[in-house]
Design brief:
This is Metal-dependent hydrolase. The chain is of the alpha+beta class. The chain folds into three domains: about 170 residues, no CATH class; about 60 residues; about 100 residues, no CATH class. It is built from ten helices and nine strands. The strands form two sheets. Strands 1, 2, 3, 4 and 5 form a five-stranded antiparallel sheet that branches. A four-stranded antiparallel sheet has the order 6-7-8-9, covered by helices on one side. The longest helix is centred in the middle third of the chain and has 36 residues. The relative contact order is 0.10.
Length: about 325
């Protein structure tokens, strides 16, 4: 999720549980600790472009790291914020732990993937219930927490937290509806998927991207879930076959290892870019949900030596026709 939402949810929990005289400092500590796990984006390498993919949403987001991460936050924030206002270090640590603990769980509600139980497992959990940015989720929490802080009223913070839980639950209901509709579409096509997933599109839980995998292809479609269900049939693409698509690639080279790393990050949803045969795309994301137009990719090189890394590229699909296509589906106009 975006930092603002992470901070707000992080503030809502300690504010819900504290006394009114501590609601301001509890909110500040919870908000800052709630955003802190995303400092892992600073773990980067100028020589290894995929390093940040491995560490983002890894150890700092693990449920097992909450005591350590919140303790580090408390060490910094107690002396700057809490101690001058009469709180003990134990109270500061508690508020930071409550805020920090919300981060990994909220990120797991998105479709990006979060290593919730690192180092026990490197599995990325993605419950696909909310977009990484969703104003309908964030704005009510923001408004309620502002009034909770101004009025020193923990009840309003509890209502904000309740709204968050209700919205995430609604996301689960919508995801299940999208998957059920997708299975109907699959049956009509007489396909036999190996797996099928539905993901919310940007900033809403009304329009969903559905992706399913067969023996040799990925298929993407869009499904709008209002009072009625509307399906927008989409595109398909061949699954990545490294041996077939890159017969020249040394399997022991760093580029081959980087493909495996990118595959783990992308949960296996990889394909060769039809427009550039040296690119490998993550099929999961696109601006228009029934299209295969990746938001990021890696690029190989024939000339690279055995120790050279791939090139990582992001693609911002800001074309007017893409925005209009997305809005047409979202609004059903």
């Amino acid at each position: 999720m975006d930092p603002l939402t992470q901070g707000l949810l992080g503030a809502s929990v300690p504010q819900s549980l504290t006394k009114k005289q501590h609601i301001v400092v509890a909110g500040v500590l919870g908000a800052l600790a709630g955003m802190a796990p995303d400092l892992d984006v600073l773990i980067r390498s100028s020589s290894d472009p995929l390093l940040f993919l491995e560490f983002h949403r890894q150890f700092t987001h693990s449920l097992l790291f909450i005591p350590i991460g919140s303790f580090i936050c408390a060490l910094v924030l107690h002396w700057l914020i809490a101690k001058p206002r009469g709180l003990s270090f134990k109270q500061s640590w508690g508020f930071c732990a409550l805020g920090y603990g919300t981060h990994g769980l909220l990120d797991s509600c998105t479709s990006y993937g979060t290593q919730l139980f690192w180092p026990l497992t490197s599995e990325r959990f993605a419950w696909n219930t909310i977009s990484v940015i969703d104003p309908a989720f964030t704005l009510p929490i923001l408004i309620l927490l502002v009034f909770a802080t101004l009025k020193r009223n923990p009840l309003l913070a509890r209502i904000a937290l309740l709204w968050g839980l209700i919205y995430l639950t609604l996301g689960v209901v919508q995801r299940d509806r999208a998957e059920a509709s997708a299975w109907q579409l699959v049956n009509e096509r007489q396909h036999t998927p190996l797996r099928l997933e539905a993901k919310p599109t940007f900033a809403n839980i009304l329009l969903w991207k559905v992706i399913y995998e067969t023996e040799d292809k990925y298929y993407v479609d869009a499904i709008r879930l209002g009072a009625s269900v509307k399906t927008y049939s989409g595109e398909s693409i061949d699954k990545l076959n490294v041996t077939k698509d890159f017969p020249w690639l040394d399997p022991n080279s760093q580029q081959a290892k980087d493909i495996k790393r990118f595959r783990q990050f992308s949960n296996g949803f990889l394909a060769q870019d039809p427009a550039d045969k040296l690119k490998i795309i993550d099929v999961r994301y696109s601006m228009v949900p029934n299209e295969i137009r990746a938001l990021w990719s890696i690029k190989l090189s024939h000339e690279a030596d055995a120790s050279a890394h791939v090139e990582y590229t992001t693609h911002r699909d800001s074309a007017p026709e893409s925005r209009q296509g997305f809005l047409r589906m979202l609004t059903d106009f």
